[in-house]
Amino acid sequence: MVGVLALAGCAKDSGGSGGSSNNAAAGSCVTATAPSAGAAAASSSAASGKVDGSSMRVGLAFDIGGRGDASFNDAAAAGVDKAKTDLGVKDVRESTAGANEDEAAKEQRLTQLASAGYNPVVAVGFAYADAVKAVSAKFAGTKFAIIDDDSITAPNVTPLVFSEEQGSFLAGVAAVYKSKNCHVGFVGGVNTPLIQKFQAGYEQGAKAASSKVVIEKDYLTPAGDFTGFQDPAKGNVVAAAEISKGADVVYQAAGASGKGVFEAAKSAGVLAIGVDSDQYNQKTVETTRDVIITSMLKRVDVAVYDYLTAVATNTLSSLPKRFDLKVDGVGYATSGGKINDIVPVLDGYKQEIISGKITVSTTPSN
């Protein structure tokens, strides 16, 4: 167990107070000395000067759950909402995928947006990859962006991809520092390579902070069954099972199913970690906000806003190839003040990742 760590704090990735002290007292689970924090990373957003996007007609194709999922889709929506405010975007059409819909439905959704003159069209989620590839070839004059997929090489398609494993590493560190049992959990929505990145980073971060931590990990549905992102009841049951085994901090990467994970944590009197958006401030989960100690921020809002800004200014080549910790593409939330005492610890690990001293794996160890 390490003692009191005197570390210099640096700028955080979200709003909220960083606390008045730079000392973070480690719990009995912690076995590693945290690295010291260095200089803060520069943000990728906030283009200088006024940008006029009033002539853009933006099409937004949501993944299942749509606006109001308190997670992935809401983050994309926030980026578009910011573009309305800052860039003057007036015309936005939204459409939402259904659970386990076929490729024809996805292609039809994108085709309808492009045919109606919406340009650019933003597809929210890797499930749109085949549809974007097919539809973008038919509408060469329409710009498309796709979140979480970089397999399409068409000149009118921009991938918006993230280093989810890096942000999840910090979530794992936070879990260890806040765990009383030295036993934490992970609940993934669908067992895909993308969600495995969240698991991989979380496990690596937890193990970096503690050599004795026990980690539960479960998925709600196998690959191909996307209902795992929209089943709060199942999220509740799976999280409750992990808690019954001793997990007292549970990290969820399960879309709208995360609501059930938070409910299970509240019922059992344990803690939870949100994902994608700052879920402490999300209206749809506000009844359980008291158990949310932090959220792994996947800045889909930043990526979407930056993309729309780049379209308006014809500077798409300036976008980062991957939204990672270095450009604030991922991070952690401090809303609620529940991790203020360990912000210097998290920032120390953050700088180790940015500098390359720590390389975070994208695949789970087992």
Question: What's the layout of helices and strands?
Answer:
Layout: E1 4-6, E2 23-25, E3 57-62, H1 72-87, E4 91-96, H2 103-115, E5 121-123, H3 129-138, E6 144-147, E7 157-160, H4 164-178, E8 183-190, H5 193-209, E9 214-221, H6 232-244, E10 249-253, H7 258-268, E11 271-276, E12 292-298, H8 300-313, E13 330-332, H9 343-355
Parallel strand pairs: 3-4, 3-5, 5-6, 6-7, 8-9, 8-10, 10-11, 11-12
Antiparallel strand pairs: 1-2, 12-13
Helix pairs in contact: 1-8, 2-3, 4-5, 4-9, 6-7
GO cellular component, one term: plasma membrane
Domain ABC transporter substrate-binding protein PnrA-like: 62-360
Pfam families: Bmp
Structural features, described:
- It is found in: Cell membrane.
- There is one protein chain.
- This protein is 33% helix and 18% strand.
- With 366 residues, the protein is of the alpha/beta class.
- It folds into two domains: 57-162 and 301-326, Rossmann fold (3-Layer(aba) Sandwich); 163-298 and 331-355, Response regulator (Rossmann fold, 3-Layer(aba) Sandwich), CATH 3.40.50.2300.
- The protein has a six-stranded mixed sheet, sandwiched between helices. Strands 4-3-5-6-7 form a five-stranded parallel sheet, with helices on both faces.
- Helix 4 (164-178) packs across helix 5, helix 4 (164-178) runs antiparallel to helix 9 and helix 6 (232-244) runs parallel beside helix 7.
- The relative contact order is 0.19.
